[in-house]
Amino acid sequence: MFIKGADVNVTEKDLKEKVLNVLEDSKFGTLATVKNDKPHSRYMTFYNEGLTLYTPTDKDTHKTEEIDDNPNVHILLGYNGDGLGDAYVEIEGTAEIRDDSAIKDKLWSDSMERWFDGPNDPDYIVLEIKPTLFRLMNSGSKTPQVLEV
Q: What tens digit of pLDDT does each residue of 96-146 get?
């Protein structure tokens, strides 16, 4: 990992911890895919394991088609609307469509019954996002603080 634009006193470990705090505290954000060489954004629910993000979706959506064509994605997480100084992260990465039962079972919640019959519903898939870069915004005196993964 590599840090750019950070305060002199901010270590990679400190920056990673700040990024993880935003990821763990913020479950709703935007996911942008590429459609006809232009960004296409929508709100999604996100879960994380370390710096890797996951979001459940239906297999027959525009986002899955767009990811098949171009796996590059951009995510915004963390702005809570409490004030102009809220910390948030901009995330660049690549998405992969996952339909294995282990990840689907792990992410399943009863709130998803609105869209799916259960964790074994063949339409239920998970997008796994492997970040390549985090920009931590509104945190510290120098922003953005950039963490390259």
A: 999 999 999 999 999 999 999 999 999 999 999 999 999 999 877 677 899
Q: Strand locations in the chain, DSSP E?
A: 2-4, 28-35, 38-45, 47-49, 52-58, 72-77, 88-98, 124-137, 145-148
CB neighbours (10 Å) of residue 89? 28
Closest CA to 9 of 142, 138, 148: 142
Nearest 5°: the CA angle 13, 140, 137 is 85
Contacts with 45 (C-beta within 8 Å, 6 or more apart), sequence order: 27, 28, 55, 56
**Rounded CA separation 3/145 (Å):** 7
DSSP structural state of residue 8: T
Token pair of 16 as six digits:
């990673």
Kindly give, in sequence order, each residue whose CB lies less than 8 Å from that of residue 12, ignoring residues fewer than 6 positions away. 1, 2, 3, 147
